[in-house]
Specification:
Layout: E1 17-18, E2 23-25, H1 43-52, H2 58-61, H3 63-66, H4 70-83, E3 86-88, E4 94-101, E5 104-114, E6 123-124, H5 131-144, E7 146-147, E8 151-155, H6 161-172, E9 177-180, E10 186-192, H7 195-205, E11 210-214, H8 216-236, E12 249-256, E13 263-265, E14 267-271, H9 276-283, E15 288-292, H10 295-304, E16 310-313, E17 318-322, H11 326-332, H12 339-343, H13 345-357, E18 368-371, H14 374-384, E19 387-390, H15 396-404, E20 415-417, E21 427-428
Parallel strand pairs: 6-11, 8-12
Antiparallel strand pairs: 1-5, 2-3, 4-5, 4-10, 5-12, 7-21, 8-11, 9-10, 13-20, 14-18, 14-19, 15-17, 16-17, 16-19
Helix pairs in contact: 4-5, 5-8, 6-7
Length: about 425
Amino acid sequence: MPSMANPELPVPGGLVLRPFRGVRFAVGDLAEVISPPYDLITEVGARDLLDTHPNNVVRLILPGGDRHRYAEARETLRTWLSSGVLVADESPAVYVYEQIGPGILQRGLIGDVGLAGPEEQIILPHEDVMPGPVADRLALMRTTEANLEPIFLLYDGDGGAATRLVDEIATSRAPLTEATTDDMVRHRLWAITAPDEIALLNEDLHPRRALIADGHHRYATYLALQREHHAAAEAAAPGRPPKPGARDFGLALLVDSTAYPPDIKAIHRVIPGLPLDEALARAGEAWRIREYGSLREGLAALAAAAEPAYLLSAGGAAHLLTDPGRERLERAMPDARSARWKALNTSVLAEFLLPEIWGMPDDERSVRVVHHDAEAAVRLARESGGTAVLMNPLEVDDVLAVASHRERVPRKSTSFGPKPRTGLVLRMFDLD
């Protein structure tokens, strides 16, 4: 259980989910105005969304086709509110959100999560953030005075009272709204407004911790807005503790990972400047290599292999790397890191395979990343005359253990899903 916070500061002593007056689209087909998270939308994808419906939420989250027209987003938001495209719910609520489709069933709670820095060990980041995306999201949130899409948090709820209530609502009550997206996933939303049910949720959540599955840059932005709020309050009334306000909370989807285990996928690497023959020759100095006749056979062997393991290919045969030389591997790993961090396949890649074996850093200039799709990574390797490095996804328990140790996984280590759809419910600061 996290330690209690200083009661004089508006920082939660545990995990807190507060109701808020959600702002929702009032359109004929909700599926036409919602979108994936902002950082998964390409320029072409943004145009396609707007071609589907001129009021798609992408106009708010990537204003001007991601040309950082923050004032344009603010004016669009105000226009949609005044014209009735967007409507605020009458009563504050915590929302139950369900995603169900082929191979998918996830339920969780959308609400105002009480903000806490990493040192509080209440909300745990597992990735580092870059200043550029934080500055971008900060400018958007500051200008629109809104949280336009939720971050994605996981917690070990052990099927407790909060999860039981979520399941009871999703199976017995009529939803506020629903939409089925092109991937055949149905999204449904319910509102919890009864004070006793909200109290039950928070009693169950309070002693728990949450892992940021998706939205590290947005959570860092929430904390930046909170610091600005506290600084303004201190300047206005020096020495007086700031009162809790809208910027002490942030929009979040909270999912019990015990009841609804996340789908965590691998992020593969492609090294355009490294031909496969050369990659194999160098790797043979420190790794055991086994050849498989097809990518499918190689991927099956990779999935069954003990970590660290990697599958190299550029089309045709695939080559499995396992059993690295332990002494050489241990010398390459940073002394200050935990044993759990050192065992991650992405850590071994970043600290040993790439720099020590192949003589290159794990950065955006030398290494390209491909989310989920092994065949796409192999195609890119073949087209670029390079090598695809295919990997198994990390385990959720390993990511949580590293985060609990106040460490960060290497870049591009995790891809959690299913991610919440953007536009189902928005949060305005002045309604909070």
